[in-house]
Design brief:
CATH topology of the largest domain: DNA polymerase, domain 1
Structural class: alpha+beta
Shape: globular
Strand content: 15-25%
Number of domains: 4
Strand order of the largest sheet: 4-5-6-8-7
Number of helices: 18
Largest sheet: 5 strands, mixed, barrel
Length: 466
Amino acid sequence: MRIASDLAGFGMGEADILRRAMGKKNPELMAEQRKKFVDGAVAHGVPEKKAERIFGFMEQFAGYGFNKSHSAAYALIAYQTAYLKANYPVEFMAALLTSEMADTDKIVKYIEECRPMGIEVLPPDVNESSNDFAVVGDKIRFGLVAVKNVGEAAIHSILNARRSQGQFRDLFDFCERADLRLVNKRVIESLIKCGAFDSLGARRAQLMAVVDKAMEAASAAQRDRAHGQVSLLDVLSSTGSAPRQRGALPELPEWERPQLLAGEKETLGFYITGHPLAEYRALLARHTTVTTEDLPSLADKSTVMLGAMVTAVKEISTKNGERMAFVTLEDLAGSVETVVFPDLYRSSMLHLAKDSAVLVKGQLDIGEETVKLLLSEVQPLTLSASGSLPLVEVTLAGDAAGSDGLRRLKAVLETHRGSCPLRLHIQLPEGGQVTIAPAPSLTVAADEGLRKALEAEFGAGCLTVR
């Protein structure tokens, strides 16, 4: 290898001097290097004791790691990696995501890293995805192999059908051309839930409603072809003389956003088109001290504030018969297992339901291979760190500020009850504004459901949460 030949030509330069010194072949040279290092560190403002301690770490490492081939090889790889990331960021991140496809936490971390780099990671697509993460223009397309319940045999069938006959036109066309012995109902439902059919123009709710119908029609067509029976419509469609008539889709509304995201989490292991915590970014920035990605680098026993979603709850009984739980929390950067002891679990059980957004305080327990968080406080994420509730403000103007608008507003608020106080701002026709504090009993939930309902009635921007 070129690297090996290059290393073989190295002379007795500074690297070799330091290697021999730190390899303890020359105690005098080691002492000289120690003094040089410590004096230089002190000159740059590093305390002498800390500099001595750092050199001690290097001295220990020298016993097995500080040789030319080791150092040069790592330096070369680091340079090549940095060059690729700087000059080919999309290709680099696609390769990195592919290399870690089996590690959900790392996939979450790298997708989140793509966002500030301006790289969009697209969901899987039956007409564009390959096995692995692939570069599509300046974006990255998710690989089919990472979709749960979709095995290699099913992917091979899908890609073969696409290569031989072109892109799929709709779900019915997909089912007719794929081998349904390999691409079964479970596979198709997983592809729908993760968004792999979104580019075909139908809603996920519509597609899920006709899976059985599409598969039955496709099975019949495949049986006919196996027996040499081809319908007139198949002939006309293949020659381009007439379009193939597909089954009609029912007129159904799309799933609510939480259901869409839950489907992605179920089939991919994480959220790809959004995250339930995205709406809380400002709140997280104000009231949390870390993300899950930061935890391993902190000191053991550190106290932290973390905002996250509850993704799993495992309840157990103590020797005294009290209930406690191991709760998995997930934020925008990854996940962590937390321990909730009996007293706290008893008082916070309702907040720790699966898919709840919470703000937690706890102490780090860092082991050799695992990082856990021992919780001391749990509160809904809609609460501020000080314990005060956010204020929900609704602004109405024009016709919306009339009696009919106020009746519609009350109806919406009644269906989105919660714990947050409310303020109503009425824009007057002649100018100015009146602020009204409704009855204390009229409190609401400061969540995405309320926002969508109010904006559907009164337009975007009518709701502010402070």
